[in-house]
Design brief:
11 helices, 8-stranded parallel sheet, alpha/beta, 358 residues, binds nicotinamide-adenine-dinucleotide
Length: 358
């Protein structure tokens, strides 16, 4: 495990002297993160360990919904990260699924970083890339650690992506960057256009894996030993436990695809119990159905710390809510690196009333 990046005073002007405020664009974030997938996976691991040790504050997310636009939402994820490099802040992330009809991505986001000493915000970062990267890093970390912990089973080399938008692309990128042994990649999406676009991305990525587009979800799942769900389904659409009879590892990143009965026949891991068992996610539906939480096997941190084992004789499902502290850690990492490179766009005079009595 790598430690969190050390605090670099020169890189964080907002934390010294008069408050300043910088804006970091999506292009800067993307340029900084490209090629650093392994570092981000290590960073995400260190944050999960801090979170498991109680060194974070991660209150419930706030969902803003609209009666006139029921498929859309904006979520606020406030959080505070402890450890060597403290930072507070908020991710404000929109999901407007209708966007994709006009070619715009579904999600857009900003991340505000606050100085933990003064409370002053010191940066606003374009955060859709940060959000996708931390989600993919968390998925790749879980895929490696959960599969490595299953005794007597090879690392899954037949992988299927169910739902093939931006998050699926990032998850593939992070798995590939961490040397995932892809032999076959299955692609399934309700939209033929998405399936074709993702297949095209896979070919451009230079994967040597055989790519197969499946029209049938059951066929797709039955043929894979790693199943990645990254759809925008609001309610379960996968009900048949037989599709999981071969005990695959499942990254249930979109959280609402699986009927609770599938979870009840599986080993279930989450990133945070309270966060995941909310808002009618599949784990929440399983809790409602059974009246308890005994279907949960543990958290990812339990696996990282070796506190719980991962069975080989049942499907294993990882359902990550996606914690705001992950966004903070990746955002602070980007901010400090951009500052060290001397490329921060500081907004002069952003804070005006800096003397209480004028
Ligand atoms: N858990 C986390 O930390 C986390 C973080 C970020 C995003 N997400 C989730 O990831 C999901 C994907 O996000 P995205 O930005 O890639 O979305 P996207 O809109 O770009 O892609 C989603 C794809 O899923 C497909 N789809 C919808 N219903 C389907 C179904 N029943 N079967 C197969 N395909 C289906 C759509 O056609 C679309 O191509 C979202 O649900 C989002 O909330 C989770």
């Amino acid at each position: 495990m790598s430690p969190l990046p050390p605090s670099d005073p020169a890189a964080t002007p907002a934390r010294n002297g008069a408050p300043s405020f910088a804006v970091i664009t999506g292009a800067q974030v993307r340029q900084l993160l490209d090629g650093r997938e392994r570092e981000i996976v290590d960073l995400v691991e260190s944050v999960y360990r801090l979170h498991g040790a109680g060194d974070t504050v991660n209150p419930p997310s706030y969902f803003l919904r609209f009666p006139d636009r029921p498929s859309s939402r904006i979520i606020a994820l406030p959080a505070s990260l402890g450890g060597e490099k403290r930072v507070d802040g908020l991710k404000w992330v929109s999901s407007f699924p209708e966007n994709i009809k006009s070619g715009l991505p579904r999600a857009s986001a900003v991340l505000i970083l606050n100085d933990p000493v003064t409370g002053y915000p010191f940066a606003c970062l374009e955060a859709s890339v940060i959000s996708a990267a931390r989600t993919a890093a968390s998925a790749a970390l879980a895929a490696h650690r959960l599969s490595d912990a299953r005794e007597g089973r090879e690392k899954p080399s037949r992988v299927v992506f169910v739902g093939t938008g931006l998050i699926a692309r990032y998850i593939h990128t992070f798995l590939a960057a961490t040397d995932w042994p892809f032999e076959e990649i299955g692609v399934h999406d309700l939209s033929a256009e998405s399936a074709a676009g993702f297949s095209d991305y896979l070919r451009r990525s230079g994967t040597g894996a055989r790519i197969t587009v499946h029209e049938d979800a059951g066929e797709a799942i039955s043929t894979a030993d790693l199943v990645v769900f990254a759809t925008v389904a609001g309610t379960p659409h996968v009900h048949d436990p037989k599709w999981f009879a071969h005990d695959p590892l499942v990254l249930h990143v979109s959280l609402r695809d699986l009927a609770p009965e599938i979870l009840l026949g599986s080993a279930n891991f989450v990133d945070d119990v309270e966060h995941c068992l909310k808002a009618d996610t599949s784990p929440h539906l399983a809790e409602k159905l059974t009246g308890g939480r005994s279907f949960l096997t543990g958290t990812l941190d339990d696996v990282l710390a070796g506190r719980v084992g991962v069975p080989s004789d049942r499907p294993v499902i990882f359902s990550p809510f996606g914690l705001g502290v992950l966004d903070l850690a990746v955002g602070a990492y980007v901010h400090d690196a951009v500052a060290r490179a001397g490329e921060l766009h500081v907004v002069d005079g952003f804070f005006h009333e800096l003397s209480r009595h004028g």
